[in-house]
Amino acid sequence: MEYHHVVTADLEQHDDRPADVRSISAAAGLDYEGSPLGLRVYEVAPGQQPPLKYHYHDEQTEVFYVLEGTLYVETPEETFILGADEAFVAEPESPHRAYNPDDADSSVRVLAIGAPSVDDVHAYEEDD
Question: Domain named Cupin type-2: which ranges (predicted)?
Answer without folding.
Answer: 41-107
